[in-house]
Structure formats: structure tokens, C-alpha cells
Design a protein that fits this description.
Blueprint: H1 6-9, H2 17-25, H3 35-40, E1 45-49, H4 57-65, E2 71-75, H5 82-85, H6 89-98, E3 105-107
Parallel strand pairs: 1-2, 2-3
């Protein structure tokens, strides 16, 4: 997620300002998620971060409700970058959710 001011204040983004404006004005985007595909993905484990600056928490939880049997880890331990910053902890936890070594739902 980016904001319009970023294309003015962040030098590296300035060349993309026009393209970003065109994308922001586009109104005919296809649906972001295909519910049939989501329902066919099994098993599914996901991390949802309370403080994620790029992904809305409520939207994440709403999407998760669309996936039967999803195994969630809801946390504020990381902020969007858990896979990179968690030194394997996040992936180990998610894999544990999938293989039954962790509870089906974690809230930390």
C-alpha cells in the first residue's frame, strides 16, 4: 500500500507517480479473491498481524472467514514482515498449525 504523497517525497518513487495515478483511478478491477479457489485450498494456515501497516486487520479476518478450516495465528508480535524478521519462527509456527503440532487457532 502506498500513499500519493510518497510519489512526491520519496525520490526513488517519483518516476512512478504517473503510473501510480493511473492505477489509482482505475475502477474496473476484477475481484481480488476467488471464493471458489479459496474454498479449495486445504489445508490453509495464515498469520494475521494486528498492527500491519499494509494489510487491514478487519479485512484479513473477513477474508479468513471465507476459507473453511483455516488455521490462524493472530498476533502483534510482528508488523507485516514476520517471514523476513522472524528468523524462521513464523514459518515454523504456521507449519505447526498445518501439521497439528500447534492449536488450530493462536492469539498472541
Amino acid at each position: 500500500m502506498v500513499f500519493p504523497w510518497m510519489f512526491v517525497e520519496i525520490h526513488a518513487l517519483r518516476p512512478f507517480k504517473e503510473a501510480a495515478n493511473l492505477l489509482a483511478e482505475k475502477k474496473d478491477w476484477p475481484p481480488l479473491y476467488n471464493k471458489t479457489t479459496l474454498n479449495n485450498n486445504k489445508p490453509v494456515a495464515a498469520a494475521v498481524y494486528h498492527e500491519d501497516m499494509f494489510v487491514n486487520f478487519n479485512l484479513s479476518m473477513k477474508t479468513a472467514k471465507e476459507i473453511p478450516g483455516i488455521r490462524l495465528w493472530v498476533t502483534n508480535e510482528y508488523i507485516h514482515s514476520g517471514l523476513r524478521d522472524g528468523a524462521g519462527h513464523v514459518l515454523d509456527l504456521l507449519m505447526g498449525l498445518l501439521n497439528g503440532k500447534k492449536p488450530l487457532f493462536l492469539w498472541t
